[in-house]
Specification:
alpha/beta, 5-stranded parallel β-sheet, globular, 48% helix, Rossmann fold, 5 helices
């Protein structure tokens, strides 16, 4: 079973993603921002991290850089919505995201991205 860490400040989206991935057989932990995620990452050691790009405290780009530096083989998925989503997701790819998702997305798109990254 793959372990996934979800990071997003939107609690409703976070819960929907958690349920979707749990029902697909993944073990899922959640964090509301990059700062909370750092503490969880150390204790849970997820195989895949899915992070929103824009969040308070420590944003997804900061979390992505930190994870990539400390755990070079971690599989990362970045997601974003809003006006600047394309630029932020491109930056996330440059910083090491294996895959990106544009919000809003369907549960099937989330599962497809996770399966793609897990298989790589």
């Amino acid at each position: 079973m793959k372990r996934i860490l979800l990071i997003d400040d939107d609690s409703l989206l976070l819960e929907v993603m958690r349920q979707t991935l749990s029902q697909a057989g993944y073990e899922v932990s959640t964090a509301a921002d990059g700062k909370e995620a750092s503490a969880l990452y150390a204790s849970r050691k997820p195989d895949i991290v899915i992070t929103d790009v824009y969040m308070p405290n420590k944003d997804g780009l900061e979390a992505l850089m930190e994870l990539r530096e400390n755990f070079p083989h971690i599989k990362l998925i970045a997601m974003s919505g809003g006006v600047a989503k394309t630029n932020l997701l491109e930056v996330a790819r440059v910083l090491g995201a294996s895959c990106t998702l544009v919000k809003p997305f369907q549960p099937e798109e989330l599962l497809q991205a996770v399966n793609q990254v897990a298989a790589s």
